[in-house]
Amino acid sequence: MTHVDAVAERGRRGRRAGGWGWFLGWLAVGACGATGLATVVSAGLALALVAAGAAGLLVWRGPRNAIAGLATGLAVPLLYLAYLNRGGPGTVCHAVPGGQTCTDEYTPVPFLAIGCVLFCAGFLLFATLGRRADTAA
């Protein structure tokens, strides 16, 4: 391997490592945006504005393939909903000091299934687009 090839390989590795940071940035934007849309009545508007501003910055400065992290970020609130409803479907009661408290829970399966698909799709898309960029360079 010549010196030029070694420098090019180090540059590709650096871009790949830096790409993961951009991917995580998009993941945070997706999670923030999805949570903002889900909670639009309370703090959702502020979260949506933060997500929009961060997305503008990431589009302006980041690599294009990192936008796949947005899909992975959209999965975060869905996976959290699946976790919160893990005792469902139906009425779930828990013992508390002085009695019990009951809540109605949804079935977690749809939240879990869609969340897992989005989570995996974002990672696979990012890896695929990253390999294409490496082979094109």
UniProtKB/TrEMBL annotation:
It comes from the Bacteria. It comes from Streptomyces pyxinicus. This is Integral membrane protein. The keyword Transmembrane helix applies. The chain crosses the membrane at residues 20-37, 43-60, 67-84, 109-129. Keywords: Membrane, Transmembrane, Transmembrane helix.
